[in-house]
Design a protein that fits this description.
There is one protein chain. The chain is elongated and about 70 Å long. By secondary structure, it is an alpha+beta fold. A hairpin with a 4-residue loop joins strand 1 and strand 2. The protein has eight helices and nine strands. The protein folds into two domains: 167 residues, Nucleoside Triphosphate Pyrophosphohydrolase; 65 residues, Orthogonal Bundle (Arc Repressor Mutant, subunit A).
């Protein structure tokens, strides 16, 4: 009898109108000890209730009746990871009827790139845990053991976000988003090696980058090294393309 009641409740929930949720994929550069270069990482949250109890998932939550989409994404991200994004871009809507084992859920997914210093600011000094919470932590975007076993369809969502990042972002724009206002050519190469997950020939990349639009040199140099300081460059293109920013109230 109990089993019949539980089954009936699940069946009833499946017939209800879809619930709306907001999730966020956020990428940052971090040191990767395996490769000796920067890697692409993202924060995940361990679920503390069913469905998918104990599995890792993207930061997110239900959309409140009075919440705007972008404000809900920013609030979920802030509450779970402590990160306050400088901007958020709407990535895609995921609404497959089978993505949730109970009531159907349609998720509006946002994504963002955060600077390495911003990401490190929220991290516990000794671990990759955020906000000293063992249920929120950073993971490599290419960590197959983790990414293939995420809750819901979040593995697919991350794959789609990576595809967009690798195919749509321009040289200067991605450097600007992940590195800041000023950067060296070597740092830009590090960004692309992290995003593409492969090594690039330094000489060829330098030639291509110098010929690219929207990258211009400055009169400043990076200080603090043992060798001749490298020149700093800046991104001179639009800061809203292709990662379109939205105002967060």
């Amino acid at each position: 009898m109990v089993g019949s009641v539980q089954f009936g409740n699940v069946a009833e929930r499946r017939e209800q109108p879809p619930a709306l949720a907001v999730s966020t994929v956020i990428f940052a550069l971090r040191d990767d000890d395996r490769t000796g270069r920067k890697g692409l990482w993202l924060p995940l949250v361990r679920r503390t209730r069913e469905p998918f109890l104990g599995q890792w998932a993207l930061p997110g939550g239900p959309l409140g009746a009075r919440d705007s989409l972008v404000d809900a994404a920013a609030a979920n991200l802030r509450d779970t990871t402590g990160l306050i994004p400088r901007y958020l871009e709407q990535l895609y809507a995921f609404g497959d009827p089978a993505r949730s084992p109970t009531r159907r859920v349609v998720s509006i997914v946002y994504w963002a790139l955060v600077r390495e210093n911003d990401a490190q600011h929220t991290e516990s000094a000794a671990t990759s845990v955020l906000l000293d919470d063992p249920n929120v932590a950073w993971f490599r975007a290419d960590d197959v053991e983790v990414m293939e076993h995420l809750a819901f369809d979040h593995s697919r969502i991350i794959d789609y976000a990576l595809w967009r990042l690798r195919n749509k972002v321009e040289y200067g724009s991605i450097a600007h988003r992940l590195l800041g206002e000023r950067f060296t050519l070597a740092q830009v190469r590090g960004v692309y090696e992290a995003v593409l997950n492969k090594s690039l020939d330094p000489a060829n990349f330098r030639r291509q980058l110098r010929a690219a639009a929207d990258i211009e040199e400055t009169d400043e140099f990076l200080s603090g090294g043992k060798h001749r300081p490298p020149r700093l460059y800046r991104y001179s293109g639009s800061t809203s393309h292709p990662l379109e920013s939205e105002t967060i109230s």
